[in-house]
Specification:
Length: 176
């Protein structure tokens, strides 16, 4: 594989990592929209599934950045791709109009065709994790650090309002 192809794979993996960390932190910070999606699809234990989904997405994102080429990273990404595709298929087959809380309440859109269309993309990126061995080139490290910095800023912007709300509530309680 030539250097241009490797660079494209690296960029696709880095962008996927950023998307998954962003989506996972959104699900962790605002769990209610994803719980509603899970309930609307008919799955039990929406609280547990929503928490596990958020953690799994953040784990995949970090795995793509910190453990490139690792089979567990590819397996988790492939598993999430299949779960998202299955959720979209269920919504379509059952004729449900379910709002997908992919990126928290701000990114809500109908669940269905989009998840099915993106499933092959996520699966291709999962395959690329194993098919394109990572290089230890300086470019990989630089891209990883840039994406981690971007994700940290985005995650902090998501979590800061929750922290401030919690702090205000705590200060409003006598002796808090």
């Amino acid at each position: 594989m030539n250097e241009a192809s490797r660079a494209l794979v690296m960029i696709a993996q880095a962008l996927t990592a950023a998307l998954f960390v962003w989506a996972g932190t959104a699900k962790i910070a605002q769990a209610n929209p994803v719980r509603a999606t899970i309930s609307a699809l008919g799955f039990g234990r929406p609280r547990a599934i929503a928490s596990a989904l958020g953690v799994a997405e953040v784990s995949v994102g970090l795995g793509l950045l910190l453990l490139p080429g690792h089979p567990v990273t590819a397996l988790l990404l492939g598993g999430l791709a299949c779960m998202f595709g299955l959720a979209g298929l269920l919504a379509l087959v059952r004729g449900l109009h379910v709002e997908c809380a992919c990126f928290g309440s701000h990114g809500a859109a109908p669940l269905g065709w989009r998840q099915l269309a993106l499933m092959p993309v996520w699966l291709a990126i999962a395959v690329s994790v194993l098919a394109v061995p990572p290089t230890l080139a300086d470019e990989r490290v630089a891209v990883t650090l840039a994406v981690l910095a971007m994700v940290a800023v985005l995650a902090a912007s998501r979590l800061m309002p929750l922290y401030l709300e919690h702090r205000v509530q705590r200060l409003a309680i006598p002796g808090g």
